[in-house]
Design a protein that fits this description.
This protein has 292 residues and is an all-alpha fold. The protein is 66% helix and 0% strand. Helix 6 packs parallel to helix 11. The chain is globular and about 60 Å long.
Length: 292
C-alpha cells in the first residue's frame, strides 16, 4: 500500500494558523487602544460575574449538600480556564484586583487603567446574590482569622506567580496560561478550601459579603491576597527580571542575560510594527500566501 505523504503544514495551514493565533492571543494594539476600553471593562465585568457565579454558587450548593466539596472547588478553576480561552485576548482576564495591581507594579499594565478594572471587578462580583451566607468566603470551622489570613497569603502568592509566569505582558491568554491558572485554582481548592475557602481574590469575597452584610472576616480576603501578590511580584523580579519592557509584550517569561534581552526586545518591537513575521510563521516560498 503506498505511503501517503503528510501535507506541509507550514505552507498548507499558514493563513488558518495566523487566524487561530489572532483569536487566541488577540492584537496588542486593540488591548492598548483607549477607544476600546469599554470593551475591556465589559469583559472584566462579565468574566468576574461568571467566576463568582460558579464559585459562590458552588459554595451554596455544597452548603445544601447537593454537590461535593471537590466539585465546588474545582468548578471555579474550570471557569477561569474557559474565561481565559474565550475572553483573555480582550481584557487580559484579570478578574481579580490583586492581579491588576500586580501587573501594574510589574510595569506591564498602565496605572491609569487599574481603577476602572477594579471597579468593574467589584461590580461584577455583586451581580450574584447570596443565600444564607453560604456563598461567602469565611474561615472554616475550627480555624481562626489569622490562620485563614496566612493561608490566603500563601495561596495567592503561588497563584500570582503562575499568572506572572504564563501571561503575555498583562494578558492571561493562550492554552498554556489557561491550563496553568485554572489548574492551580482547582488544586488550591482541593487541599486548602477547609481552611479559608480559597478566595485568593478580594472581588470574589466582596460580592457575597456586600449582599449578606457580613464583613467580619473580609479583611482576611483583602490583606491576604494583596500581600501574596506583592510577594509574587518580588519573586517574578528575581526569576525573570523587571517587567514593563518589550520582552514581556512578546512572552511572559523574561531573561536576565543583557545581550539576549536586547535581541528579543528588538524582535518584539519589529513584530509589533509588522516589519517581520513571528518565528515559525514564515512562508517557505513566495507563493505561500504571505502579504507583500
Amino acid at each position: 500500500m503506498p505511503i501517503q505523504e503528510s501535507p506541509n503544514i507550514s505552507t498548507h495551514d499558514l493563513p488558518r494558523a495566523q487566524r487561530m493565533l489572532m483569536l487566541e492571543f488577540g492584537d496588542r494594539k486593540d488591548f492598548d487602544d483607549p477607544k476600546l476600553e469599554y470593551r475591556r471593562l465589559f469583559s472584566e465585568l462579565l468574566g468576574t460575574f461568571m467566576l463568582v457565579l460558579v464559585a459562590a454558587g458552588g459554595g451554596i450548593l455544597h452548603g445544601k449538600g447537593q454537590i461535593s466539596l471537590a466539585a465546588a472547588v474545582v468548578a471555579p478553576g474550570l471557569m477561569v480556564l474557559a474565561i481565559i480561552l474565550f475572553m483573555g485576548a480582550v481584557s487580559g482576564a484579570h478578574l481579580n484586583p490583586a492581579v491588576s495591581l500586580a501587573f501594574a507594579v510589574r510595569g506591564d499594565f498602565p496605572w491609569k487603567r487599574v481603577p476602572g478594572y477594579i471597579v468593574v471587578q467589584l461590580l461584577g462580583a455583586t451581580l450574584f446574590g447570596n443565600v444564607e451566607h453560604l456563598g461567602a468566603t469565611l474561615p472554616g470551622p475550627g480555624y481562626q482569622d489569622w490562620q485563614a489570613f496566612l493561608m490566603e497569603i500563601a495561596l495567592t502568592g503561588v497563584l500570582l506567580s503562575v499568572i506572572l509566569g504564563t501571561a503575555s505582558a498583562a494578558q492571561n491568554v493562550g492554552a498554556i496560561g489557561a491550563l496553568g491558572v485554572g489548574g492551580y485554582i482547582a488544586l488550591a481548592g482541593l487541599w486548602a478550601a477547609p481552611v479559608s475557602g480559597t478566595s485568593m481574590n478580594p472581588a470574589r469575597s466582596f460580592g457575597p459579603a456586600l449582599v449578606s452584610g457580613d464583613w467580619t472576616a473580609y479583611w482576611v480576603y483583602v490583606a491576604g491576597p494583596l500581600i501574596g501578590a506583592a510577594i509574587a511580584v518580588g519573586c517574578a523580579t528575581i526569576l525573570r527580571g523587571r517587567g514593563g519592557d518589550p520582552i514581556s509584550h512578546a512572552a511572559g517569561a523574561g531573561v536576565l542575560t543583557p545581550g539576549r534581552a536586547a535581541a528579543k526586545a528588538k524582535l518584539s518591537r519589529d513584530i509589533d510594527a509588522g516589519n517581520v513575521v513571528a518565528p515559525g510563521l514564515e512562508p517557505t516560498s513566495p507563493g505561500d500566501g504571505a502579504t507583500p
